[in-house]
Amino acid sequence: xxxxxxxxxxxxxxxxxxxxxxxxxxxxxxxxxxxxxxxxxxxxxxxxxxxxxxxxxxxxxxxxxxxxxxxxxxxxxxxxxxxxxxxxxxxxxxxxxxxxxxxxxxxxxxxxxxxxxxxxxxxxxxxxxxxxxxxxxxxxxxxxxxxxxxxxxxxxxxxxxxxxxxxxxxxxxxxxxxxxxxxxxxxxxxxxxxxxxxxxxxxxxxxxxxxxxxxxxxxxxxxxxxxxxxxxxxxxxxxxxxxxxxxxxxxxxxxxxxxxxxxxxxxxxxxxxxxxxxxxxxxxxxxxxxxxxxxxxxxx
Length: 300
Fold this sequence. Notes:
This protein is about 5% helix and about 50% strand. By secondary structure, the chain is mainly beta.
């Protein structure tokens, strides 16, 4: 029996004026542990005058994790936080009962050409914390646990694994680990993983069970206690996952919840302008009548 339960390839999606590669949610795999959303942004070169502009939009029931490899993004939210995200930093925003934020090219970069490359991730909140107060955290790259074993470089972006803990304030048992191999190397984390696990290949390739898996593929692991791979030189992969929740999660637009009623409540609040606004920004993104990519049917 194969240890790789599923292979998910990136699907193109338009976010604002920006094309991304969608990995999660997938029709046959909505979540990996508490991770419910994974987009790969770029890599793309934007000419002078073309910028990332995702206007104010709301979230509930989740934490967002933004991680850049190239470029810069200006984060601005309804809590008053306004900060530029740079490569290697972890931007962690917890929506709880509701938050609004925008994501844009910083003013100093808008008139010139620029590169964009990174990951946008959503982590669902435990049921008992879905309506917690919104919160925000920004972690510098130097604050993240980083180590090297037998020429394999590890960086822990969030959660706990291999005896290390990231300072990012997560709310469930999870891990998000970036691994870089400059030379051909063995990746065997079978004794360190827990819960569910996905492996996203950002660049390069990994080999397992006589097969080669390439960049922009997400592998869903069937048995984490038999999780051994060989990575080719120049490979970067992300191991992520953790303990799954006992309750199902529903997703509509930017809303995540264990109960449809919470989503309906959030939809009405956004229509009626009841979310706290972002100071100085009023170009709110209207809620779609129907999400073309991810749908749910409310119970009768």
